[in-house]
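Aim 2, interim progress. The first record below pairs a target sequence with its C-alpha cells.
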Amino acid sequence: MAEIVALYLQNSWLHLPYLDWVLVDMTVSRELSAYGEALKQKIAPGNRDLLGFNDRYFQSKGNLSKMIETRWPEVWEKLWAKVFWFLIVPIGAIWLAFRNNWTVVGTVLLVLYSLVIGFRVLIGLARWGKRTVNHILGRPDPKTKPFILWDQMYEVWRRLEGPVVNPTIVREAMVKSSEHGAVWDTVTWSLLDRVISIDPAVWIVRPNNA
C-alpha cells in the first residue's frame, strides 16, 4: 500500500480529490480492520489458548456475534469446575481429615483453605474498589480502554463519509485517537495533509457522475 501511495503522490497528473479519498479510506479501513481483529483475538471475553488467542475466534471465523453468544453448556461446565475444585474437593478433604481424627492435617487444610478464600475475597474487593474510584473520578475502566480506542478510530472512518468531507475534522479525529494509542500509517497522514493544504474545509469525495 505504501508503494502505491508513493507512486500516486509522485505523479501529480494522477491527483484527484476522489482518488485521494479512496486511498485515505483504504488506509484508514485497513488500520481499523486490523485493530478490530486484534480485539476479537486478544481482548474479547472468552477462553484463551496457550498463545493468548480467543478460542472462539477461529471456531466462528471471526464472527463477533457468534463469539459473544451465550453457550450454556460451556457456562455450566465452568460453573461445575469452580464448584468442584473450590468447594467440593477442599471441603471434602477437610471433612475427611477431621472425620478420621487427623486433627493436625485437618487444621492445616482448614487454615490454608481459609487463607485462599480470604485472599480471593480481598482481591475481589480491591478490584471493586478500584472500579468504583475510577467511576467516581471519571476514569475509564482499563478493560474498556481498548474498546474506547476502537470507537475513536471508528470515528475517523465515519468522518470520511461523503460526498463532502471536512479534512481538518478528519485529522483532528486522527490526532485524538493517536493520543490514546492509535497508530495510523504515515501515508494516511501524508495524503490527508496534502488534501488540507489544498482546502482545509471542503473535500469533494464523489466524482461528478457518482
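The second target in this work package is listed in the same format:
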Amino acid sequence: MKYANTSRSLSFLAHLLLVLLFGFLGIYFGCLVTPFFFVAAVDPIVPVIEGAYLLYLELSVLGWSLAILSAIGLWNAVKALKNPRDDEPVVKSFTLLISEGWIASLFFLLQACLFFDLTGRNSAADNRVFVIIASLLITIGLLIATNIPMVKLYDGKDQKPLVRSFVGAGLVVTGATFVESAITLVGLLSNQTMTPSLREKFMWLLIAIVVPSFIAALLLCLGYFVFFKKNAKLVSLLAGFAFAAIALGLVAFGVLNIVWYESNVALNAIGKDSAFAFKPYGYGFAVMNFVVAAFTCALSVILMSTGLSKKAK
C-alpha cells in the first residue's frame, strides 16, 4: 500500500465536489439553455448570464465533461477507500484529476486565443485585453498544478494509463460537443419564426461544429475502446486524424464567419431579437479560427508522425 487514507480521502472529496459543481453546470446549460437557443424568439429558460451561443455551448461541454470524468473518478475513489491495500483505484482517480486539469487548462487557453469576445465584450465595456491576460495566467497556473502530480505519478513508470485517460477525456469533450450542438441544430430546424435564408446560414455554422466533433469523437472512441490495448501507434494515428477533423472544422467556421459577416449571423455575439439577428464584433474571431486551426493541424501532424514512425514506442 503506497497511498495513505489521506490521499484516498482527498481524491474522494475532490471528485465529489467536482461532480456536484460541474454536474449542475452541465445540467443547467446543457439541458435548459443551449438546446433551446434557437427554438423561439424568447428562451424557455432565461439564462442567469446574457451571452452568445458559443458561451453557452462551451459551458455545457465543460460541465458535462468534468462531471462525467469526475463521476468515474469518484467511483474509483470509493473503491480505493473500501480496499486500502489496492493502489490501482486511487491511481486511476488521480489520473482522472490530471485529465480534468488539462481540460480546464484548454478551456482557459481557448478563452485567451479564440473565445475572448464571449466574456470580454458587453454593452458597457471592452475587456478583451483583461480576459486574454487573465485566461493565460490561469492556464499557466492550472498546467503547473496539473503537471506536478502527473510527474510524481508517472515519472519513470508505464504511462499508458495516463495516455488512455487523455484519449478518454478527448472522447468525452468531443462527444459532449457533438451532442449539444446536434440538439441545437434540431431546435434550429424546427424554428419557423426565422427567415429561411437566416436559418440556413445558422444551420451551416452549426454543421461546422457538429460534423468535426462527431468525426473526432468517433475516432477517439475507436482508439479508446478498440485499439488501445492492441496497437498504441494506431491510437496515436487516430488521435491525429481527430485533431485534423477539428482543424478543418475551425477553418470552415472561420470562412463562414467572414463570408456572412454582413448578414448579422454570428454565434459569438450577443443581440438576439425577434429576428435572431447577431451583429459580429469584428473579424478577430474569424481570423483566430485560422490561427488555432494551424496549431491544431501541427499537433495532428505530430501525432500522425508518431503513429507512423517505426521507432515510436
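The two ends are 30 Å apart (CA to CA). This observation will shape the mutagenesis plan for the next reporting period.
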